[in-house]
Amino acid sequence: MARGRIATAADAEICIKLFELRREAEMRKAREFVIFQFQPKSAEDVLKLMQSMGTHENAWLRQVFSYWEYAASLVIHDLVHPDLFITWNGEMVVVYAKFAPFLKDMRQAMDNPEFWMGVQKVVTGSLDMRKRLAKTQKMLARFAAMAQAAGR
């Protein structure tokens, strides 16, 4: 990831296109489910959903996982400026923070050590990003505690 270069209009166009893709109707449903509705407590919860082929929830989870992995590949291969990308796509950090505690076990169970490695590389690729991730993880923990206190 070339952090030394200056963002260009082409980088902005890619970010705009990625934003437009996130607004597509089915992707909105997928994001709503993965970010807000699905609250896994373990890797087993995630793996069970990943194996529930033919369900909307399975399709939505796969859609969100693959969307962010594809988007991360644009950063990794220096096709979009990393700082501009992260400014436009902070949701990747939220989604990664939500599933990061389960990734090691998921990768082992799937026998796929590369699963979501691109997202991990982008989200943990710099000190600033690791700080942002830590803040996001604390925020998610607060939200989970509030939901539990409210009986949800």
Explain what you see.
Helix 2 (25-37) packs across helix 4, helix 3 packs across helix 6 and helix 6 packs across helix 8. The protein is mainly α. It is built from 8 helices and no strands.
Task: Briefly say what this structure is.
The protein has 152 residues and is mainly α.
Q: Which descriptors would you attach to this protein?
A:
152 residues, mainly alpha, globular
What is the secondary structure topology, with strand pairs?
Elements: H1 9-22, H2 25-37, H3 43-50, H4 56-76, H5 82-88, H6 91-110, H7 117-123, H8 127-149
Tell me, briefly, the overall form. Answer: globular
**Fraction of residues in helices?**
over 70%
* Oligomeric organization of the protein chains: single chain
Count of alpha and pi helical runs: 8
Distance between the first and last residues' Cα: 40 Å
The beta-strand count equals 0
DSSP strand content: under 5%
The succession of helices and strands, N to C, reads: HHHHHHHH
